[in-house]
């Protein structure tokens, strides 16, 4: 199966920078902001986003606003794929109550992972606002969920596959699409 690159490292970096500016503009700054990555690739993207926000707003401590949110036990497909590794959920010290939480994931597809994340969040507290930031929105939603911040809208066929590779996990930054009727 042949893959074609749709984003390179520079384009991913620019997308994160744009999302960082959008998050700060929507939130009117970084006050009460929490950035939570959804494992696995949402976590390094959340760290990059928090770091970029800290570069734009020097008073922000990137490590203090970023965390991760494991959604495994809230998924509705555990009966189909029962073997999943559970990643730790790590919240910033101030928790999520009355905060603006930005969930970060690599690809928005059916919306089921985001629904799981919303369920997981409700077990942990009551954020004031929850927003969604994704690197790629490929469409084909099964639930009424949309991203507030999108790095790239990527129209795809349902049988195509979008693969996000990040330096922290894969040794390189790239987004590729494969499969379908290429």
From TrEMBL:
Keywords: Glycosyltransferase, Transcription, Transcription regulation, Transferase
Annotated EC: 2.4.2.9
Alphabetized InterPro entries for the sequence: PRTase-like (IPR029057), PRTase_dom (IPR000836), PyrR (IPR023050), PyrR_bifunctional (IPR050137)
Enzymatic reactions: UMP + diphosphate = 5-phospho-alpha-D-ribose 1-diphosphate + uracil
Short name of one Pfam family: Pribosyltran
Enzyme class, broadest EC rank: transferase
Domain Phosphoribosyltransferase: 5-149
Short sequence motif named PRPP-binding, residue ranges: 101-113
GO molecular function per UniProt: uracil phosphoribosyltransferase activity
Function comment: Regulates the transcription of the pyrimidine nucleotide (pyr) operon in response to exogenous pyrimidines.
Entry similarity comment: Belongs to the purine/pyrimidine phosphoribosyltransferase family. PyrR subfamily.
Listed name of the protein: Bifunctional protein PyrR
Source organism of the structure: Saxibacter everestensis
High-level lineage: Bacteria, Bacillati, Actinomycetota, Actinomycetes, Micrococcales
